[in-house]
Specification:
Blueprint: H1 2-17, E1 27-31, H2 35-50, E2 55-59, H3 65-71, E3 76-77, H4 85-94, E4 97-113, H5 115-120, E5 139-142, H6 151-158, E6 164-167, H7 171-183, E7 189-194, H8 198-202, E8 205-206, E9 215-224, H9 227-230, H10 232-240, H11 245-256, H12 262-272, H13 274-282, H14 294-343, H15 345-361, H16 367-380
Parallel strand pairs: 1-2, 5-6, 5-7
Antiparallel strand pairs: 3-9, 4-7, 4-8, 4-9
This protein binds trimethylamine oxide.
Trimethylamine oxide (TMO) binds near residues 81, 147 and 193.
């Protein structure tokens, strides 16, 4: 009896002390070809590193990646835009991909117009106004060809849109087209998504197509089905990481508007959201007791200093930009005023009336002629 008790006790002890540990194998985090995803991937990776995991970043095609997720050669996807739903839902159903968490953020992608286009064609963003908006010249600027297959060709056919598709090679090609249109005061309708950096800067709208053509869905964190067993602690962390639309938009903004590298942008986001991230980690139990090493502290201090420096640089840049913009506006207003002064048709017509009166008073034109001409001028005033 005593012996059995002892063995049982031993068993309990062994079971408790061999509590599952995360594998030291790297967690492979895929990178795609738009900014918020790359920054978000680095944010997740850094959080997992703080958790003691090894991570590795690898570029993958944003559709084919789900095959790799099923094979276990890619492990986490967190920006699940609706364009990919077809590619991953069947695999979720099959069981080789698991939905680990939902984010607060919803995403929508599709045809998009900035406010300056809406100002040129006020019936936008209703899709019926597209054909009537001659300023758009019948061109839709799409992202890289591999993003949407035939989808927008079908949309154009189904809705009888008089539009041709012009593809760009990368996401940054889209932003170049957008900034160029803005500079040249030209209308543009282009592929875009929200949350994304132009949300704030360009105050744009998605084109309002009939519901079945709108692509809106909630972001989910997807993991390879073996993730939970291989990295049980990391899995807990992934369960609690939750991005809002603002988080995603900011991640893109740091890169596409503030010109940071993806890594810098991830650091910046982590710094700005320190409390939130600490809270996530505290809630996964292990980190409460984890003490910061000297090295960690120094690293943190260096990151803070770098961020402060970066902030000062950006503020200076913003100030310079604002001053330049102000000077430009003042100059433009002055030029416009000058132009109006010289060419104000009313002023010219008033002069012409005076001349006419003089001609009549001097007897150089007769009364009938005077009245006729005067009427013509007055009609123009
Ligand atoms: C998947 N994307 C955000 C580029 O539309």
């Amino acid at each position: 009896m005593k012996k059995i008790c002892l063995i049982l006790l031993l068993l309990v002890f062994v079971t408790l002390s061999t509590k599952a540990e995360d594998s030291k194998d790297p967690i492979v985090i895929p990178l795609h070809n738009w900014s918020s995803q790359i920054v978000g991937a680095h944010v997740m990776g850094q959080i997992l590193e703080r958790n003691g995991n090894n991570v590795e970043y690898q570029p993958f095609d944003s559709h084919a990646v789900f095959d790799n997720m099923c094979k276990g050669t890619a492990h986490i996807i967190h920006e699940t835009w609706d364009v990919f739903a077809k590619s991953f839902y069947e695999k979720v159903e099959k069981g080789c991909i698991e939905i680990a968490a939902l984010h607060d953020a919803y995403g929508e992608e599709g045809w998009w117009v900035p406010k300056f286009t809406i100002d040129m064609c006020p019936d936008l963003p209703n899709y019926k106004a597209l054909n009537r908006c001659s300023a758009l010249k019948g061109v839709f600027i799409d992202g890289p060809k591999e993003w949407h297959g035939n989808e927008y060709k079908k949309l154009i056919n189904n809705l009888n849109l008089n539009f041709k598709i012009k593809y760009v090679n990368s996401a940054s090609g889209l932003w170049e087209a957008l900034y160029k249109a803005k500079r040249n005061n030209e209308a543009i309708v282009m592929f875009n998504w929200s949350p994304n950096f132009p949300d704030g800067e360009f105050d744009g709208r998605m084109i309002e197509f009939p519901d079945q053509y709108r692509k809106r869905s909630q972001f989910k964190t997807l993991v390879w089905k073996g993730f939970k067993n291989k990295w049980p602690d990391a899995y807990k962390v992934l369960k609690i990481i939750n991005f809002s639309a603002m988080d995603i938009s900011k991640m893109a903004y740091f890169v596409d508007s503030e010109n940071m590298s993806h890594d810098e942008a991830a650091n910046r986001w982590l710094l700005n959201n320190k409390d939130k991230v600490d809270h996530w980690l505290d809630n996964t139990s292990k980190w409460i007791t984890k003490k910061k090493s000297k090295e960690d502290e120094q690293k943190e201090k260096a990151t803070k200093e770098a961020a402060a420096k970066e902030k000062a640089r950006l503020e200076k840049k913003a100030k310079e930009r604002a001053a330049k913009e102000k000077a430009r506006k003042e100059k433009a207003a002055k030029e416009k005023a000058e132009l109006n002064k010289t060419y104000d048709p009313n002023e010219i017509n008033k002069e012409r009336l005076k001349d006419l009166k003089w001609l009549f008073d001097e007897g150089l034109i007769n009364e009938q002629e005077y009245k006729q001409k005067k009427k013509e001028i007055l009609d123009q005033l």
